Amino acid sequence: MTYILAIDQGTTSSRAIVFNEKGRSCGTGQREFTQHYPDDGWVEHDPEEIWETTLASCREAIEKAGISAGDLAGIGITNQRETTLLWDRQTGKAVYPAIVWQDRRTAEWTAKLKSQGLESTVSKRTGLLLDPYFSGSKLAWILDNVPGVRQRAEAGELAFGTVDTFLLWRLTGGKQHATDATNASRTLLFNIHTQQWDKALLDIFGIPASLLPEVKDTGADFGRCNPELLGAALPIAAMVGDQQGATIGQACFAPGMAKSTYGTGCFVVLNTGREAQTSSHRLLTTVAYRIGGEVTYALEGSIFVAGAAVQWLRDGLKLIGSAAETQALAESVPSANGVYMVPAFTGLGAPYWDPDARGAILGLTRDTGIAHIARATLESVCYQTRDLVEAMIGDGADFSTLRVDGGMVVNNWLVQRLADTLACDCERPLVTETTALGAAYMAGLQLGVYDSLEKIAELWEREALFQPAMKEVDRERRYHGWRQAVERVRSG
Ligand SMILES: Nc1ncnc2c1ncn2[C@@H]1O[C@H](COP(=O)(O)OP(=O)(O)O)[C@@H](O)[C@H]1O
Ligand SMILES: O=P(O)(O)OC[C@H](O)CO
């Protein structure tokens, strides 16, 4: 049996999974880590905690799989995207905490760039929008706000990376400073057509080119990990942004296939093949994967808060003891009783792109109880997905089936509600850890464990099918209520 270790460094936890060549999990390690909210709309992670939890998860996964590191063919890395780190090339120590993708501190600055008419220049090159979500303005913020950092950057002393690059640097003892095309495509600094860092973009954001990692294919030779860390000098054979990882893990290899992942946020990714299709509905154009120099593109809809709203019910409001309780609560009432929750805690992502919107619970009456709020929270995830799917349909996509995954889809009520809200079939695969699986598949392709994407696609297996059962008139009435609720929280 051949084994691959997939590292999945997510927003709320670091995970590692040992997969066998059939794409089945043999052992998992997981560590949650601290979320820091130092100011309104700011979200940071401690880089050392990212690293330590990742390493501990890898060791745990190998142990649980009952193998030794030497039995692994190699490693694939997948990661929360856009999160921005800057570190010292000598010591490997970060000069500032990781600024997380959800962080909105650069909202004013990106709005200023927009008012200068720069959005179309940026969008044409990157497929993205001028929003604080992406790495470019976060990196510029560190350079401009941490004393001495810009001079050190200009002197070539520092290295920039998203989480994949930072982990690679640490795993290889500073020997590799690289990223892959999927992660690069989320920085606002990378031209998705030429597949190069773009001088015009570096000038707009004021980024010295010396900071940037080399951009490689998704499956590539990323060097070997320091043998002292895991017990063997394993080849690192793939790096992929987590949503692209899930697209691969869900075997969405044909144009028109789509997946939706429900973790902290929710991300719908639609494969558009070799064409970098532009959206007329404020969706993102992004790199799905790059194999042998050939780019497959995707349209993406990104929602910042999905599971995070459930976490807020648990940790912020203490209305529930565990995320899983939301299912029984939602089932315990016949409807949300007119309650809508708009979880715009860090603004609204696609298709609204309103960094200044803030969340609300609307339609409260004296009868409203915890069950209604829990149900409205799960429904908000479904409505937000419908916003994205409507945008994709507007761009010409055909949505008869959506493959779903991520931590939230163990909740059967949620997935049924999703099928009802979207009026489309939702398929849940046997392996819902599709993000990690995608990284393992890419590493396996690079290492010769698989010889084609077709072979990988044959391993995909459906565990459950959820079909729409709601009356159209109810579906439309409820969705109309959601659109009105969203209008109430918009900033403009
Ligand atoms: N049974 C459940 N019902 C609803 N939400 C859930 C359930 N189980 C987990 N979640 C939510 O799913 C999220 C965890 O998903 P995960 O894929 O691990 O996230 P991430 O990769 O972003 O860290 C959490 O935000 C949690 O609140
Ligand atoms: O950590 P996740 O799974 O919520 O994913 C985060 C995304 O990559 C952000 O773009």
Automatic annotation (TrEMBL):
Any one GO CC term of the record: cytosol
Binding site for sn-glycerol 3-phosphate: 11, 81-82, 133, 242
Listed PROSITE patterns: FGGY_KINASES_1, FGGY_KINASES_2
Entry-linked SUPFAM superfamilies: Actin-like ATPase domain
Domain Carbohydrate kinase FGGY N-terminal: 3-249
GO terms, molecular function: ATP binding; glycerol kinase activity
Pathway where this protein functions: Polyol metabolism; glycerol degradation via glycerol kinase pathway; sn-glycerol 3-phosphate from glycerol: step 1/1
Single biological process term from Gene Ontology: glycerol-3-phosphate metabolic process
This enzyme's EC code(s): 2.7.1.30
Superkingdom per UniProt: Bacteria
Protein name in UniProt: Glycerol kinase
Organism encoding this protein: Spongiibacter nanhainus
Gene: glpK
